[in-house]
Specification:
The chain has 92 residues and is of the alpha+beta class. It contains two helices and five strands; from the N terminus they run ααβββββ. The chain has helices at residues 2-30, 32-43, and strands spanning 46-51, 54-63, 67-71, 78-81, 85-90. A five-stranded antiparallel sheet has the order 4-3-2-1-5. Helix 1 (2-30) crosses helix 2. The longest helix has 29 residues, at 2-30. The chain is elongated, with a radius of gyration of 19 Å.
């Protein structure tokens, strides 16, 4: 029995740790735009936000249900409505 426990414990641990990663992948498939914005926030890397014919190069600070807050070299705070975003290009 102890032999089985040695193999079962790491297997259970890996399954528990993989759960949040699988959930994040599922969320990214549902809303890839939000996934790229959140990745910019987590990695502190830049994205180009395309909105209404403009391209805004920035790093995402926060994302909520309606707005994206970002910052750039020119502006300390940029607020963009999510429903106005046409697309996002990632630099990472």
């Amino acid at each position: 029995m102890p032999r089985t426990a040695r193999f079962l414990a790491p297997l259970l641990l890996s399954a528990l740790l993989a759960g949040p990663a699988l959930a994040a992948d599922a969320a990214a498939e549902k809303d890839p735009l939000r996934a790229v914005l959140l990745e910019s926030k987590e990695k502190n890397r830049g994205v180009a936000i395309h909105a209404n014919g403009l391209s805004i190069n920035a790093v995402v600070v926060s994302v909520d249900e309606r707005y994206v807050v970002a910052r750039s070299q020119q502006s300390s705070r940029i607020v963009i409505r999510l429903d106005r975003i046409d697309g996002v290009s990632a630099f990472f």
